[in-house]
Amino acid sequence: MKKILFLFFAILILAGCANKQCDKDVCNKSSKVKNVIFMIGDGMGLNQVYAGMTANGGHLNIERCTHTGLAKTYSANSYITDSAAGGTALASGNKTNNGMIGMNADSVAVKSILEMAEEAGMATGLVATVRITHATPAAFYAHQINRGMYEEIAAEMLTSGVDFFVGGGRNNFEVRKDSLNYSDSLRNANYDIVYSIDLIEAPVLLPFGALCADGDMPKASERGDFLPKAVDLAIKSLDARGEGFFLMVEGSQIDYQGHGNSTEGVIDEVLDFDRAIKVALDFAERNGNTLVVITADHETGGMTIMNGSYVDSTVVVQFNTGGHTGTMVPIYSYGPQCAKFTGIMENTEIPFRIKSFLGF
Ligand code: MG
Ligand code: ZN
């Protein structure tokens, strides 16, 4: 009986690994993590993903991720996190108070995984569809008591060592209370600073920064292929240095559309983020040493799917709040060590695990 059971399980395991992706990435647990692409859908709960999936005829690129898990999102001082505490948890592995950037709850600055990657000589990058000084990207390079201190956050870009950034937020660098021009300061520090990536060919020389809007970028339906193109540019440019890279990509405006309770807006932003996910997964598949982890800082809107149709690609949605909710958020992973992101974990556990694979 035992032998038969063993055989049964052996066949199950073999069958589970029969597909190509599993052979290449999942079953190859010894495969080294050289590059990390960490993708955060701001406000992207499970229902946001599923609404996008349904509107897309039943499939998304995110489904190519071979492993899934769940993260608890509460902050140090609130059951419902904001993006500053959520970003800090994902960037540094510290629960902090809502509103705080890159500091623990005692207001002590904490190092982010991007800063550790920078110190270790890896190439580092940030891509967002809001201003690059906004809470989520800021949590990876800045340390401020309040997320609203955009100009102070912009100033920290200069000392951060971030090799590549694309997003909005030009005004925070150039139209400031202190009259300083941080785009010029960055140029003096060897950065190529541009205001559009439309005509930029990959790879660019590092360090490089693109401030493509005065504030946030326009919404997905008015943004064209900005996000997937920025991710392609980031990956090719960071990879060209050959030292391994850490890249954070934010699908920033899923959250805004959730706050606005716009079904169409949420779907547009999720599909846009999913196109960027395709760029990351295509690279990871070719490269073999790239870990892709996709998650959210929190859910926004209390979005509930009431009805829908794969045939018509339609969803009927009800929102329960104009704010954030406390629900757990999904984690999707692909590439070496991706099996370590299954199960239920604290959001702070995600960067800890990534750090351990990189040897920090
Ligand atoms: Mg954000
Ligand atoms: Zn929000």
Helices and strands in order, then pairings?
Blueprint: H1 2-16, H2 20-26, E1 35-41, H3 46-55, E2 67-72, H4 83-92, H5 113-119, E3 123-131, H6 135-138, H7 150-160, E4 164-168, H8 170-174, H9 182-188, E5 192-194, E6 208-211, H10 226-240, E7 245-251, H11 254-259, H12 263-287, E8 290-296, E9 299-300, E10 304-309, E11 314-318, E12 324-325, E13 329-334, E14 343-346, H13 349-358
Parallel strand pairs: 1-7, 1-8, 2-14, 3-4, 3-7, 4-6, 5-6
Antiparallel strand pairs: 2-13, 8-13, 9-12, 10-11
Helix pairs in contact: 3-12, 4-13, 10-12
Bound molecules: magnesium ion and zinc ion (ZN).
Write a concise keyword list for the protein shown above.
about 350 residues; alpha/beta; Alkaline Phosphatase, subunit A; 10-stranded mixed sheet; binds magnesium ion; binds zinc ion
Would you kindly provide a brief summary of this structure?
By secondary structure, this protein is α/β, with parallel strands linked by helices. The chain is built from 13 helices and 14 strands.
